[in-house]
Amino acid sequence: MRRRKPIEGFVLGGIFFWTIIAHLVASCLAIQLEERMEIVRKVLKEVPLIDGHNDLPWNIRKFLKNQLREFRFGEDLRDITPWSTSAWSHTDLRRLKEGMVSAQFWSAYAPCSSQHLDAVQLTLEQIDLIRRLVNLYPQHMALVTTADGIEESHRSGKLASLIGIEGGHSIGTSLGVLRTFYQLGARYLTLTHTCNTPWADCCKVDEPGRVPHIGGLSHFGTLVVSEMNRLGMIVDLSHVSVPTMLDALATSKAPVIFSHSSAHAICNSSRNVPDHVLKRIAVNGGLVMVAFYPHFVSCGEKATLKDVVAHINHIRDVAGVDHVGIGAGYDGVNLVPQGLEDVSRYPYLFAELLESERWTEEDIAKLAGRNLIRVFRQVEQIRDQLEAQGTLPIDQSIPPEDILGRSYCRYSGPRT
């Protein structure tokens, strides 16, 4: 039998020693993570986790033509086609519960190609879809239109479902349509999507070689913002150009939000928020809800949970901990960060933040939902103040020259 040489025994012993150390370190890290996860679970039982943007309604239209009889939302969609084979699918009730999500803004979206055509109809159909989906699961979901409603749903263990309209083209340049959407339950309007409207510039005009259409908001655009203040509808600035951001901030009496954007200083996508606007958000009292899409996070196709943390920390550094939230954008993207694969993964993001001593339980509570509830309540307070002052609905129409050549699908008879 061959005897090992002393050097071989030393090497083998060293390997064994470092293997044991590696196992001990991994075990300690696992314990630390579980301890942080326990803190996160405690916080999210007390405070609702609110996500600012989810595109599931458009996927239901895309895959099922809005026919809900075949939509098994209460089951694991990873096991059901076509969801199981789609890179765009990240959401079902089981995973929302696992992720401890208490409130979700569902996007009522109509594509830019529908502008000046049937955008209003498409948006109405998406609002109808969201309301029907909620009604199908009354034990698990509740349609919510107020800040108090979010907290009431959280206490009852139901998913507070809110409606956000993604794109100003959805109102068809009509304040009457805007008011009707509010009556149907919509509680934010994203002023543009990835196309200019006749009254607001989108983020695309900020890209190299692009020319602004308006240079921000037109006069009618400021009326849209003012009417949203009067209604109590949150102004959402995701997708808009920087001049539009600044014009909206100068116009709005109420705090504004970015429902799904990140920090421009880290990733210079035109969809992100530059630092000088972040500083204005702090003054306005508003909120930037951080998106998870890798192209907004790392400016590439790959990103990690830690990359998202960097955006959250940057917005906190510039605007303050009272002005940052979560707006992942699930079901509207086909790429997600490693570690944030679907709606079940939010607790891991908060646990990662708690690894730093700068994040307290109170800070996590603000990021998760308290900041959005504060903004929502302030929007409602401005609404109530304007009502007490006798402020009437704005009855002005967009100037005809602003839609010249784009009104071929409009009734040409008497208009208000």
From TrEMBL:
User: Signal peptide location in the record?
Assistant: none
Q: Which reaction does it catalyse?
A: an L-aminoacyl-L-amino acid + H2O = 2 an L-alpha-amino acid
Query: What Enzyme Commission number(s) apply to this enzyme?
Result: 3.4.13.19
User: How does the UniProt record describe the way this protein sits in the membrane?
Assistant: Lipid-anchor; GPI-anchor
InterPro entries given in the database record: Metal_Hydrolase, Pept_M19
Q: Which GO terms describe its cellular component?
A: side of membrane
Q: Which CDD domains match?
A: rDP_like (cd01301)
Asked whether the keyword Membrane is assigned, the reply is yes
Q: Which organism is it from?
A: Anopheles farauti
Where can this protein be found? Membrane
Family according to the record: Belongs to the metallo-dependent hydrolases superfamily. Peptidase M19 family.
Q: Which SUPFAM superfamilies does the protein's record reference? A: Metallo-dependent hydrolases (SSF51556)
- The answer to whether keyword Glycoprotein applies is yes
Give the required cofactors.
Zn(2+)
Tell me a GO biological process for this protein.
proteolysis
Under which name does UniProt file this protein? Dipeptidase
Assembly behavior: Homodimer; disulfide-linked.
Query: Which keywords fit this entry according to its UniProt record?
Result: Dipeptidase, Disulfide bond, Glycoprotein, GPI-anchor, Hydrolase, Lipoprotein, Membrane, Metal-binding, Metalloprotease, Protease, Zinc
GO molecular function terms listed in the Swiss-Prot or TrEMBL record = metal ion binding; metallodipeptidase activity
